[in-house]
Amino acid sequence: MISIQQMQYILSLAEEGSFSRASEACFVTQPTLSMQIKKAEEVLGQVLFDRSSQPISLSTFGEEFLLIIRDVLNEYKRIEDLKLRYEGTYREVIRMGVIPTVAAYMIPDLYTKWMKNATEFQLTVEELKTDELIQAMREGKIDVGILSGPYSDPHFRSTRLFQEEILAYFPSSNNQELHTDQLSEAHPWLLTPGNCLRSQIMHFCNLKSTSDDWDYQGGNMDLLMNMVDQHGGYTLIPEFFGKRKKQDFKRIKSSVGEVPAREIIALTKNKSAKWKGIERLLRDAQLHYATQTDDQELFCLLQWS
């Protein structure tokens, strides 16, 4: 059977798509890495990579094999972690990915509390768009992902954190409550493609596209609010981001009285050796935002797509 070292080389080449980059990442020469992968293929009796493609891609067998070796390498790391725990030198690392429209308020809200409570492990947080977050989960690059749900995958466990309303920043309107037909008459300042809040709101407000004559798509919500202040129109803001601001935000209703909202969830692997620490972080989020939520009218939960 192939060795752990060969599995690590295979994983690195699959992620880098280049022998030169993979060898650098593994701190070995390119011939060494290439030779070891070739030996692994000979043992398996199957080709793992299509070397004619640029970047190098996995074969059909290689794609299935990669799923297995990710699990094997994760279990192998658990053996190393167990050894360190008994030596008294182990400190678990929990890697978290958060979508930008949640990270904008969750990290400032909870960072101090997380650092205070997370004395037994080290927390790293990375901001990722939804598709990037899902891919990072599948590749084992993060241990927990926080995003807008619902999201279903048999490989992941979904935990509901909280629900929040979507509000409009529309200072030129004197109405405290807006209907979607009123929004269709004004210019929307939207997040860039890849942010799930953008597609959710475009669907709810029935927005086909932005205008051709003065379109700008921003990377963060503060920037979009500044564009509204300077050029008019409106943008859409999650409830808990709005609570950190002093500006006036307005509720939105559809023609049938639905109020747009989204459910924030956490994704973890079905079997995670880090679940005890992850659960503590998620419970902090649940408790923090549960205390800030008022009773609201009927919601229309926005679906992730």
Describe the structure.
The protein is of the alpha/beta class and 305 residues long. It has three domains: 4-87, Winged helix-like DNA-binding domain superfamily/Winged helix DNA-binding domain (Arc Repressor Mutant, subunit A, Orthogonal Bundle), CATH 1.10.10; 92-163 and 262-295, 3-Layer(aba) Sandwich (D-Maltodextrin-Binding Protein, domain 2), CATH 3.40.190; 164-260, 3-Layer(aba) Sandwich (D-Maltodextrin-Binding Protein, domain 2), CATH 3.40.190.10. The protein has helices at residues 4-16, 19-26, 30-44, 60-87, 100-117, 130-138, 180-183, 196-204, 221-231, 239-242, 275-290, and strands at residues 49-50, 57-58, 92-98, 121-127, 144-149, 156-169, 177-179, 235-238, 251-253, 259-269, 299-301. Strands 3, 4, 5, 6, 8, 10 and 11 form a seven-stranded mixed beta sheet that branches. A two-stranded antiparallel ribbon has the order 1-2. It has a two-stranded parallel ribbon with strand order 7-9. Helix 2 packs across helix 3. It is elongated and about 70 Å long.
Q: What structural class do you assign from the helix and strand content?
A: alpha/beta
Estimate percent helicity: 40-55%
CATH T-level fold name of the largest domain? D-Maltodextrin-Binding Protein, domain 2
CATH class of the largest domain: Alpha Beta
Q: Which range does the strand content fall in?
A: 15-25%
SSE string:
HHHEEHEHEHEEEHHHEHEEHE
Which regions are unreliable across 5 or more consecutive residues at pLDDT < 50?
none
Q: Can you summarize the main beta sheet?
A: 7 strands, mixed
The best one-word shape is elongated
